[in-house]
Amino acid sequence: MPDTDVSNILWCLGFAVSAACLGLPDVGLISYGEMVDQGSLITQAVSIPVIGDGDNGYGNAMNVKRTERFARIILQDQA
């Protein structure tokens, strides 16, 4: 991804998914499965790299690995 023009990258953010799916702010109501499902739909619909919101990793390294459909993910330490 280093050669990618940053103007051609899409962010799949928890707030956007929560607002679109639930009509609510991102307060931890979107599940891991819902985020992965929406990420799959988004990455299939576009031809540009998608950066996914991995929140706090959803529990463990295996769940983080399952986000591999994104070009990159952002993780937060919420300890």
UniProtKB/TrEMBL annotation:
Pfam families: PEP_mutase
Keyword annotations: Lyase, Membrane, Transmembrane, Transmembrane helix
TM region positions: 6-25
InterPro entries, alphabetized: Pyrv/PenolPyrv_kinase-like_dom (IPR015813), Pyrv_kinase-like_dom_sf (IPR040442)
GO MF, one example: lyase activity
Protein name in the entry: 2,3-dimethylmalate lyase
